[in-house]
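U., I forgot to send this yesterday:
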Amino acid sequence: MSYKVDLSDIDRAGKASLTAQIADRIAADIELGVLGPGEKLPTTRVLAEHAGINHLTAARIYRRLADQGYVAGQVGRGTFVRSHPPVDAQEAGDDAEWQSSVLRPRRSTYAEQMLAESLGTGRDVIPFAAGFPAPSLLPAQELAALAEGRLRDGSGLEYLPVEGLPSLRVRLAELGRELGFASEAEEVVVTTGGRQAIDLVARAVLGPGDVAVVESPTFAGTLTSLQATGAQVLAMPVDDEGADVAVLERILARHEVKLVAVQPACQNPTGVDLSEARRARLVHLARERGFFVLEDGVYGSMALDGRDRPRLRAQAPAHVVYVDSLSKSIGGGLRLGWIAASGPVLPRLVRLKMDADLHSAALPQHLAAAWLEGDRHQRHLEAVIPEYRRRRDELLEALERHLGAEATWAVPTGGQHVWVTLRRAVDERALYAEALRAGVSFLPGGATQAEPTARTSLRLSFSYLDPSDFDEGVKRLARALASVRRRQPVGATAPLS
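Result:
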């Protein structure tokens, strides 16, 4: 509409200036909704002619309105009503409610909600939701000794290249040649944990309207990163041979897929490996159809039989972008991860990394470079994996004792979790809430799945807890399930949102 400010009662001879009176009148029209958010105001020339004022006075009026937060100028386009109202500083005080009018709406996904809730439980809760390494199995003393030298000489406090500490990248490339995820240091970008690595890859490849395919269930962080790009995220089920590539083929018949996210080794949360036949078929499809594969290898070195799994990237380095970290072996608090990639996506990843945090913290990179020299890391894995295997077996025994009639599960070949599916579904949210009341937590299956399912599943982690807590934790879970079954209809599942 063509807006004209009402000047019928403006006092041109009054004490208040014309600038203040006209600006106040326009501000009142904005507050009353006469002028809506995003609406364009008349040009200063038109305002000057209508109000019988000079051009400089009209410009001062708009500047006053901009200072008050009512309007914003856009170079070459004009002056527009802002999309949120200004806040009276005296009225607002320390009240932060004004922020909701400024921030763009952002709806939390179900995966984000449940991941945050499951990791924030109280001290009296047995935390099967905590998928962290056991503190007693971390090489704290060895790392402390390595850190002391790096702090004393100052090297751990210096800025580093965006791509990471050169000596660490060289060592990661050496390991990459052994395992198949990299061949040259130039392919490696050090990140702040595997979580950032996944997020950078998602942002580098995907945008709104693109299509991504992800294992279901999967790592909740992968799911949230893919969804945050605005891409359509489709599910590829996981069975005892890993991701079902036949489902991917059916998706490819209907969609142009940009990225497929998989964990070929010791998949989180199921603990299964991608079979050789499916690995070969996935690589063939990536080459034939021209899509990226995001290979998450975080648990690849945590196989409970002690054998490193070969990495998928060795078969198609131009199509596979590999991510990994030391979080599950020597400590998640180090936040030390990396990406291995080649081709045009690599400089894009470096730019995104630079925009995110310039470079990851220097001290953890120096520690990792020193830790990975020689066979120290391999000896550490050989020492701790038998203990994780024992913990897995003890959790499986507790499940058999207390939930054997109620649920099924696969025996994980690696990783740090057991994926449990109830024989008869219940409301997932209700079970989670009742479990917390009973003093036990878990990661709800819906937080790991891209699409709704009729099943009720949960991830139980065995790495962090002392095995002495397993029996009591599963007992509490069984009591919570029995309580929910008495109150809830059969077959209800939590919606994914």
